[in-house]
Amino acid sequence: MHQVPFFTLLGQPLIIQWLVKSTAFNRLRVFVVLIQKMPKLSVRNLSKSYPNGNSEEVEVLDNISFDVHEGELLGIVGPSGCGKTTLLKIIAGLLEADEGQVFIDDEEVHPGHNRVGYIFQQESLFPWRTVRKNIQFGLEITSVDSSRMNERVNEIIEIVGMDGLEDNYPHEISGGQARKTEMARSLVVSPDILVADEALSNLDAQTRNYLQEEFLRIQKRTGSTIVFVSHNVDEAVFMSDRILVLSNIPSRIISEYEIDVPKPRIRTSQECLAYRSKILDVLKVEQEKAMSRSRQKQSVAT
Ligand SMILES: Nc1ncnc2c1ncn2[C@@H]1O[C@H](COP(=O)(O)OP(=O)(O)OP(=O)(O)O)[C@@H](O)[C@H]1O
Ligand SMILES: [Mg+2]
Q: Which fold would CATH assign to domain 6-301?
């Protein structure tokens, strides 16, 4: 559903009349309600194609629109190669869309903006820097003075639970600890939004489960707004407030699920398993479509 940007609403004649006539208290109340309803992130009609090497364009994202509210954890699942990373990169300002817009707090953002923290699909710690220096990295290009920088880095090390390991190098910590360090590096600059691309992949099942709980604990403590891409439907159901399911390319939003189960959730509860099964069914249909398309292509080629 398209939401009217907040400042457009304020410009409507009836609203202007009401603003003039109402008491200051009522104006303040309505203002607070409107601010609360305003999405933190608004993605509007994003489309993106890439050249495929044969001087042709392959459409990857097709008119994607959604909102994310303050403090919400939005999960995104979809078939491999459907454009999840492309979508996150556009939101984070690392890639330009062909069409569409991204708004943060109702303000349009453009490539190069730095309001989104990014946890990459591949491990991305600097091997020559300690945990502390890796986390500090984001603050070094800001004008924060060194005592405030140390204070903030210590605070975030404590939040993610990396105390005692801050002087270790990446090769001296586990995969799970590396993911926590990456999360800390993104959070240290207090970004408006955090996007996480398969943040917990390549970990054994036990560590993954533990880190899912840690991720939720850290989100609760920091109040972060998070867009979380995952291949793992169980993980998405366990963690997300809402899940979007994307189709094969050209990728569209084919389903949306509000996960109406209080947190902390029990992975094997009937409610979680029911969401899991619905989402897997939708993904299975997409997989079958992709396989039948590839069979058709093969039969045309032979
Ligand atoms: N820079 C690029 N140039 C050309 N094609 C690209 C480029 N980046 C991605 N693609 C293609 O766009 C499609 C979507 O890629 P993307 O990495 O966004 O998918 P994904 O959903 O994140 O995949 P995965 O689930 O495997 O991580 C893929 O077919 C990929 O080959
Ligand atoms: Mg990806």
A: Rossmann fold (3.40.50)
- Bridge partners of 68, per DSSP, are 41
DSSP type of residue 55: S
Packing angle, helices 205-222 and 175-187, rounded to 10: 20
Contacts of 253 (CB under 8 A, 6+ apart): 64, 65, 66, 244, 245, 246, 247
Q: Does the pLDDT value for residue 258 go beyond 70?
A: yes
Does the Cβ of 82 fall within 6 Å of ligand 1?
Answer: yes
Alpha carbons 173 and 219: distance in angstroms, whole number? 22
Beta strand 41-51 with 99-104: parallel, antiparallel or unpaired? antiparallel
What ranges do the domains of the chain cover?
Answer: 6-301
Q: How many CB atoms lie within 10 A of CB 118?
A: 22
H-type alpha helices, 92-172? 131-140, 146-160
Dihedral-angle region of residue 213 (phi above 0 means left; psi in -120 to 50 means alpha; beta otherwise): alpha
Q: Is the pTM of this model over 0.85?
A: yes
Q: Is the CB of 80 inside a 6 Å radius of any atom of ligand 1?
A: yes
> What is the rounded CA–CA span in Å between residue 14 and residue 82?
44
96-112 in b/e burial notation, b at 16+ Cβ within 10 A? ebeebebbbbbeebeee
For 98-157, the pLDDT digits (tens) are 999 999 999 999 999 989 999 998 889 999 999 999 999 989 988 899 999 999 999 999
> 52-96: per-residue pLDDT in tens?
888 899 999 999 999 999 999 999 999 999 999 999 999 999 999
Distance 288 CA to ligand 2 centre (A): 20
C-alpha 264/C-alpha 223 separation (Å) is 16
Question: Whole-angstrom Cα distance, residue 215 to residue 199?
Answer: 10
Q: Is 206 in the pocket of ligand 1 (CB under 6 A)?
A: no
